[in-house]
Amino acid sequence: MSKLKIWSFLLLMIVAVTVVLAACSSDDSSDGDTKKDNEEGTTETAEEKVLIFGRGGDSVSLDPAAVTDGESFKVTQNIQETLLNFGQQDTTINEGLATKWEPSEDGLSYTFTLREGVKFHDGTDFNAEAVVKNFERWAGGSEDQFPYYGSMFGGYAGDEGHVIESVTAEGDYTIIFKLTRAQAPFLKNIAMSPFAIASPTAFEAAGDKFGDSPVGTGPFKFVEWKRNDSITIEKNKEYWNSEEPKLDKVIFRAIPDNSARLNDLLTGAIDLADGVNPSDGSTVEGEAALQLFERPSMNIGYLGLTSTRPPFDNKKVRQAVNYAIDKQAIVDAFFEGRAEVAKNPMPSSISGYNDDIPGYEYDPEKAKQLLAEAGMPDGFEMELWAMPVPRPYMPDGTKVAEAIQKNLADVGITAKIVSFEWATYLEKARNGEADAFLLGWTGDNGDADNFLYVLLDEDNIGSNNYSYYSNDESHKILIEAQTEVDEDKRNELYKQAQVIISEEAPWVPLAHSTPLLAGDAEIINFYPHPTGSDRLNKVDFK
Amino acid sequence: MLHYIGKRLLQLIPVLLGMTFIVFMIIRAIPGNPAQLILGQLASKEAIAALEIKLGLSQPWYTQYFDYLAGLLKGDLGESMRTVQPVAKEIWPYLAATMELAFFAIIIAVIIGVNAGIISAWFQNSWFDYMAMVLALIGVSMPIFWLGLMEQWIFGVELQWLPTTGRENVRDPVNSITSLYIVDTIIQGRFDQLGTVLKHLVLPGIALATIPMAIIARMTRSSMLEVMRADYVRTARAKGQKMFFVVYKHALKNAIIPVLTVIGLQTGLLLGGAILTETIFGWPGIGRYIYEAIQFRDYPVIQSGILVVAFIFVMINLFVDILYGVVDPRIKYD
Question: In Å, how far is B324's CA from the nearest CA of chain A?
Fold first, then answer.
């Protein structure tokens, strides 16, 4: 190397080091990344209310009808609105883009009165014609285009099971749905995020690219999407409710690691963090600058027992396992007490929950006795599948599996813990290859059908009924309940179904967890919704 | 020279072809059905079967493979099954994010690693030598996961010097033109944003640089030690040249070849192997892009993503090979 080269190399080094150091120490006021800078505030950002919402993953598409993942709905819920809304923190039916809704006596038709004077973000008028076009778009699609439409309304136009016979506009602000058969959860389905109304002008122009730049009537307008990084939405100044939204901008950031996300909250880089580990709950409560939010529980974490695989084809063995497991200890240790011990396949907030069911208390002696009755006094060997990923309903699959393993060993059952990569795990469990597996479910619309039928009916074997449980009696009841429009009668049916399911014991229901979020102490009016799709129109800073 | 480059480029074809085949077979050998994963848990069997046909998954594997190859020849990297976007269009922002981070990390690793190695060799068995080599040992064995979270906690949460995750201050986002934010901020003259972007690079950059830095330091040291014993080094000293010039001029030039090889290999590895760093620091890079595609069995993204990374990897190594000749004129290509 010549001298010149050496000197230029050294110079380059000095420049590089200086740049790094300068970047570290610069007190640039335009950078609001650290808490300190943030509090000092700058003239521009002090007036603008920006909420940065950190979450575990990015959205798949911002066309809510086209996706099934919660991270997509979390954003679209604020851009596009549904005809009906769920309650603030429950799944009761409230007005949305429709102000009135009347079912006919037989439950075969519904008349909706729409809100007047509403416009989409692109200036298109929101009216009956727009609603009809949305439903026509979905009904004319297929399962890979609009997956939820097919599963909630029994298929697509022309399919035998399709529930919606017709959607017609009567005048500018009245919509009439005609159904082929009564569907008890119809209104709850209508209130689900995937059925939010989009601007027909926009989706007709964008085709299948609509999910890149959604247009709705919601309190926020889409601004920008940097994939796997951030999604920005801003205040819709022409929102029909002039009081809302309170925030000027919301930025959703994808930060996959739970601990890193909490670090970001502590530095003030984000204002709200989804998916806080139960074990971090007390850390957040100990920070004066932060507050902890609890998402009302609408989930179930369970141990499925594949009832086609011996010895779990024997009801007594399934019951024995139910008695052998100390659920309270699991809830205390791995959910940090932020969960309710489960006895039914659905949480108590759901209409039709049967609280009279005693459930299986922790009783190893009873378990041994049942095993003896089943002809296996010395127990048996089995595989116990542990979920490889944390989920709100199962924060740590491996640890829960270890606790269960110990409980089972106490009654003579030798369980070997196995695990697979997540997609493999689901596929193998769906094929009935597991003896016993940990799994869970978060409800879509707060209806009992969305738990009991979806998870435990024989129609769903090979899909969501991973335990291969089939029972003619409960099947008959669950099908009848789908079309029963009388609320009381319907609840009674679900209560009966739970009695049968409890007796047949296809699962060991473990817990209904309370997912945690953490946020800046200044945040007000944020009410996490049990479905996981939070409406941020009322959220504000103190 | 050109002849040599041409030959090397031709050799790339069987390498990349073999790689597409291996990746293609491996991702199909693992269980998991893309159609099921796209349609979600409520999907019916009929719908899954229909989507499999639409995605071409119901065809025999060789038909699928040759269709894919035919597309590649036309420059078509396929379409993501999950987002329904062309991979070629989708991949660039991720690749740019990773390139920026990997480049930053390798600069840190080279500057610190090479110099630490040289000084260790120069003052062999001194306290500096011992300390540097112990640190290097810790560096190669450090779990990135732990290091990353510690960095965030110390420099982000406690000292509040540096931002903990992401590429930019989202309150003042970079207007992305090339997706390389350093370039974007410079073209737009936003030097305030350039500072922020550089700040965001520091913590993940250090986390990513740790292992290559340690490897480079050890390699430089051992290579330098060998050269420093050579006669011409003694001669240069005997002529009365300053030790600094002997080390940095005569010895380094002869010792640098194996170091360059390691730097080349490490740079390539950083591009594809930054998944952990990208996850902890919420960096929207290509490692996470491919990793998430694996979770969803998004075959075209996995295949083409790995292909692109592998292509860059071999190109970097080709570049390093050419560099040998520039650094050491004794090496001739023909």
Answer: 14
Is B86 within the bounds of a domain? no
Q: Does B41 touch chain A (CB under 8 A)?
A: yes
B38 and B178, same domain (yes or no): no
B67 and chain A: CB distance < 8 Å anywhere?
no
Domain boundary among B6, B39, B73: B73
B146-165 residues touching A, CB cutoff 8 A: 148-149, 152-153, 156-157, 160-165
From first CA to last CA, the distance across chain B in angstroms is 6
Please tell me the distance in Å from A479's CA to the nearest CA on chain B: 17
**B201 and B259: one domain?**
yes
Cβ of residue B47 closer than 8 Å to a chain A Cβ: yes
Of the candidates B192, B168, B27, which has an alpha carbon nearest to the alpha carbon of residue B93? B168
Q: Is B119 among the domain residues?
A: yes
The angle subtended at Cα A131 by Cα A125 and Cα A132, nearest 5°, is: 120
Residues B154, B60 within the same domain? no
Residues A229, B166: C-beta atoms closer than 8 Å:
yes
Q: Which residues of B fall within a CB distance of 8 Å from A427?
A: 31-33, 36
Maximum distance among all alpha carbons in chain B?
85
Residues 6+ apart with CB under 8 A from B125: none
B50 and B132 together in one domain: no
Q: Which helix (H) or strand (E) holds B187?
A: helix B181-187
B126 and B241 together in one domain = yes
In-domain check, residue B79: no
Q: Which of A69, A142, A454 sits opposite B42 (nearest CB)?
A: A454
Beta strands A50-55 and A249-254, pairing class = parallel
Q: What is the DSSP letter of A66?
A: G
Q: Which range of residues forms the domain containing residue B193?
A: 93-327
- Chain A closest-CA separation from residue B14 CA (Å): 31
Q: Name every residue whose Cβ is closer than 8 Å to that of residue A117 and which is 6 or more positions away in sequence.
A: A240
Which residues of B fall within a CB distance of 8 Å from A24?
161-162, 199, 202
Q: Say yes or no: B34 and B162 in one domain.
A: no
Number of Cβ within a 10 Å radius of residue A493: 23
Which chain B residues touch A261 with a CB distance below 8 Å? 165, 282
From first to last of its 542 residues, chain A has per-residue pLDDT tens of 445 555 565 556 555 554 544 444 444 433 444 443 444 344 444 578 999 999 988 988 899 998 888 899 999 999 999 999 999 998 899 999 999 999 998 889 999 999 999 999 999 999 999 999 999 999 998 877 888 898 889 889 888 889 999 999 999 999 999 999 999 899 999 999 999 999 999 999 998 889 989 999 999 999 999 988 999 999 999 999 999 999 999 999 999 888 899 999 999 999 999 989 888 998 899 999 999 999 999 999 999 999 999 899 999 999 999 999 999 999 999 998 899 999 999 999 899 999 999 999 999 999 999 999 999 999 899 999 999 888 889 988 999 999 999 999 999 999 999 998 887 888 888 888 999 999 999 888 889 999 999 899 988 887 789 999 999 999 999 999 988 888 899 999 999 999 999 999 999 999 999 999 999 999 999 999 999 899 999 999 98
Structural domain contains residue B7: no
Domain boundary among B9, B41, B73: B73
Residue of B40, B162, B176 lying closest to A147 (CB–CB): B40
Burial state string for A31-51 with b = 16 or more CB within 10 A and e = fewer than 16 = bbbbbebbeeebeebeeebbb
If asked whether residues B259 and B144 sit together in one domain, one would say: yes
Q: Does one domain contain both B51 and B100?
A: no
Q: Hey, which residues 100-129 in chain B have their CB within 8 Å of chain A?
A: 107, 111
Q: Which residue of A has its CA nearest to B168?
A: A33
Count up the domains in chain B and report the number: 2
CATH label of the domain that carries residue B205 = 1.10.3720.10
How far is the C-alpha of B271 from the C-alpha of B254, rounded, in Å?
Answer: 28
